[in-house]
Each structure stands twice: as structure tokens, then as C-alpha cells.
Design a protein that fits this description.
Layout: E1 7-12, H1 18-27, E2 33-35, E3 38-43, H2 45-54, E4 62-69, H3 73-80, H4 86-89, E5 100-107, H5 114-129, E6 143-150, E7 153-159, H6 181-191, E8 216-218, H7 225-234, H8 261-272, E9 283-287, H9 290-303, E10 310-313, E11 325-329, H10 344-356, E12 360-366, H11 369-374, E13 380-387, E14 390-397
Parallel strand pairs: 5-6, 8-9, 8-11, 9-10, 11-12
Antiparallel strand pairs: 1-3, 1-4, 2-3, 4-7, 6-7, 12-14, 13-14
Helix pairs in contact: 2-8, 6-7
Length: 399
């Protein structure tokens, strides 16, 4: 590898939330190109480190090793055996010997037998590198290689992330039906609370973005994920460093033979230097459940944002909507939370509160048209996406 050399990467997206992942990639100056299932981009190893540390709405980042067409195992082997597997699991004659496993899907291809492909790949990589193959989930720290086959066209990628990026590390206490951190960040972007940026910004531009300027409330805060993510955004804390000491979490790429620890350390220090001491705006969360408030406070402490947020036990009727300001929330749907309960009265209260606060911009997640109708308000649709087996819609009411 040469200094400044670029490599092909792919960042998968939640269907329906692509605009906000593209928004983030653009703030990093990475020039994303839309593909089925996510975004392709090119960058250096340092760009890869930054993206893993900084992307709030992404789940993982893959290194594209190769794309090719194969109609037989012989053709597949000829392509696969030429790849630099030693970059990711070590090689013969090196001290690094990392275990590996596969995630393989093949549809509408002559090579449809996924287990047979895994067996051959496992044997080839083991023979070339001496690394250990785990056909099952035997080693949670094993390097993951992702193989996708569709209409005889194959893409082989190496996972650079390891544990999913929504696992920031701070949310150790949860309430019922918690929202993933990556989804919470996505709806904060979609709500408009985060200032928009121009596409095509240069590398490092994310550290120069303006922080939000208006207060925010989540009146159904649960374990506080939306409010905690808002605090991390407001203070420019990278989600991969969401703790009081701003220490980076662990990533798969740190165990690669090609890992550049000095570049990673420089990246971390640079990001730490741009973190704000305090949130420039007020951030509030309320919930009627005392246990949820305790969980939210504990999670905020672990995220390092306890001094930036305010959590209080209140019913929706008692919540004070910020004027001017934003309300971004994930109310109960009657599934897992308030199951079997008629929620029409709750949503009627939400509609009344919205009418009483004309200077509050509102964005809330809705699972059923009946809850939208129960508010007595008209709403625009900002996003639609699957989550936890439900089809959710982010509804908006602007000023």
C-alpha cells in the first residue's frame, strides 16, 4: 500500500433512510454513489477510520475486495484466490492469525449453494494464510467476509466495523421497545433539527458544521436514546467515542495486518479537539415511567452527556413544548409498549399539545394510520422505513 492510496468501500443503508446516510457521507467529503442497498465511495484507510468513528446513521462499513462474474466453482476460485486475504487475517510468516467467518447470500445464480461456497473459500483462505475458519458463530471476534451473489455477479467484501455501529456502548439500560441509536440519529437528521449542509464538502468538513440552534424535547423519551444522540450531535462527539473520556470503541480494522495505528491515533485526537464542552442548546426528555427516567439518566452518564440533558418524569399533558424548538419522539404504538391499550386518547392529547404550541416543529414515528388520524392534525411524511418488524413513518409538522 502506498501513502494516500484509495480503496473502494460500501456502506449499507436502512431502506428508506438513504438520504440521511448520504447526507452524512457528504459531510465527510466522501462523494457517495448510490447503489442497491447503500452507497459506494472511495477513500484512504484514514477515511475509513473517520467514517467508522463519525457516521451516526450507518451500521457498518465494508471494504470492497472484488466484483466479478462466475458461472462455475472454477471461475469463482480463480477470482477469489487472487485476493489479499492476508490484509485482514494475517499471512504465513506473520504473528497475526485472526479467525474468520462468512455471510453469504446467492440468488438467481448458478452457484446457489452457499455452504459449498463457504467451504471452498474457507479452505482457500486457510491454506493461503494459516488463519482459522469458523463456519458457525464460534468466535465473536472473527473477521467477517461478506459475499453477495446475484445473477452470477459476485461481490466479496471485508467488514471493517466488527460490532454493529449502533452499539455505541452507553445504552446499557433499556426501557420497553428501545430505538436503535442509528435510527434515532437518522430521524434527528430527517426532522430538520440538524442544520443542512451542502453536498460535496471537503474531507474534514464535518468538524466545521454548525451545531443545532434550537432546543429539543422528546416527551416519550424511554431510555433516552433520541435525547442522548441529540446531545452527541450538538457537542460534535463522534458516536464511536460516546463516553466521558472520548475514548474510541473497538473496530475490526484494528486487528488487520494493514492497520495504521499512528494514523488512527491522529484521527482520534483531531476529532477530540473539535468536541464542544457543552451543548449549545437545551435538550429535554420526559416520560411518565420512573424506571425509564432512571435508565435515561444512567445512559446519558455513560455517553458523557449527563450535563447536557435534562430528564424528568412527566405525562404528555404536563410536557412543556419548546417554542421555538423541536419535538422529536417515538411514542408507544400499542406493540410491546401499552399492548392491548386504546391509545386514541394519548394521540388526541398529542394533537392538542401540537396545536397549543404553534412555534414547535414536530417529528414523530407512527406505525398505524389510526394514530395519525387520532391527533386531529394533518401531517407530511418525511421518511418511511422498516424497524423491529414494523413499517414506520416519520411524520412532520413544520411551522
Amino acid at each position: 500500500m502506498r501513502p494516500g492510496e484509495t480503496f473502494p468501500f460500501f456502506t449499507p443503508s436502512v431502506p428508506g433512510l438513504e438520504p440521511w446516510l448520504k447526507y452524512e457521507l457528504n459531510t465527510l467529503g466522501l462523494k457517495p454513489l448510490a447503489e442497491e442497498g447503500g452507497f459506494f465511495w472511495r477513500g484512504t484507510w484514514r477515511d475509513l477510520y473517520r467514517a467508522n468513528l463519525m457516521l451516526r446513521s450507518a451500521g457498518r462499513i465494508l471494504v470492497r475486495m472484488k466484483q466479478f462474474t462466475a458461472l462455475s466453482f472454477a471461475e469463482f476460485e480463480a477470482e477469489a484466490t487472487s485476493l489479499p486475504w492476508h490484509w485482514f487475517v494475517g499471512g504465513k510468516g506473520t504473528s497475526l492469525k485472526r479467525a474468520f467467518k462468512f455471510k453469504i447470500t446467492c440468488t438467481k445464480s448458478k452457484l446457489y449453494h452457499e455452504d459449498a461456497l463457504a467451504e471452498r473459500l474457507g479452505r482457500w483462505i486457510t491454506e493461503a494464510t494459516g488463519a482459522g475458519w469458523f463456519p458457525g458463530a464460534a468466535d465473536v471476534d472473527a473477521q467477517i467476509f461478506v459475499v453477495r451473489g446475484f445473477h452470477d455477479k459476485f461481490i466479496i467484501s471485508a467488514d471493517s466495523t466488527g460490532e454493529h455501529l449502533h452499539r455505541r456502548g452507553y445504552r446499557q439500560e433499556t426501557s420497553k421497545a428501545p430505538l436503535r441509536e442509528t435510527i434515532a440519529a437518522s430521524i434527528l437528521f430527517a426532522s430538520g433539527w440538524v442544520p443542512a449542509v451542502e453536498e460535496g464538502l471537503g474531507r474534514g468538513a464535518a468538524t466545521r458544521l454548525k451545531a443545532p440552534t434550537l432546543p429539543l424535547l422528546d416527551p416519550f423519551c424511554g431510555s433516552g436514546t433520541i435525547v442522548a444522540e441529540a446531545a452527541l450531535i450538538a457537542r460534535k462527539v463522534p458516536p464511536g467515542m460516546a463516553n466521558p473520556d472520548l475514548k474510541p470503541r473497538a473496530f475490526a480494522f484494528q486487528r488487520w495486518d494493514s492497520f495504521e495505528p499512528e494514523e488512527f491515533a491522529k484521527t482520534v485526537v483531531s476529532l477530540q479537539n473539535h468536541v464542544l464542552e457543552r451543548s449549545p442548546v437545551e435538550l429535554h426528555g420526559t416520560d411518565r415511567d420512573e424506571g425509564a427516567i432512571k435508565a435515561a439518566l444512567g445512559n446519558a452518564r455513560r455517553a458523557g452527556v449527563a450535563n447536557d440533558v435534562d430528564f424528568e418524569r412527566r405525562t404528555l399533558s404536563e410536557a412543556v413544548f419548546p417554542q421555538p424548538g423541536y419535538l422529536v419522539t417515538n411514542p408507544p404504538f400499542g406493540v410491546r409498549v401499552s399492548e392491548g391499550t386504546d391509545l386514541r386518547d394519548l394521540y388526541a392529547v398529542l394533537g392538542r399539545k401540537v396545536r397549543e404550541a404553534p412555534e414547535t416543529k414536530v417529528a414523530w414515528l407512527c406505525s398505524e394510520p389510526q394514530w395519525k388520524a387520532a391527533t386531529g392534525e394533518s401531517w407530511s411524511e418525511a421518511a418511511r422505513f422498516p424497524n423491529g418488524g414494523l413499517d414506520l413513518t416519520l411524520l412532520q409538522k413544520l411551522l
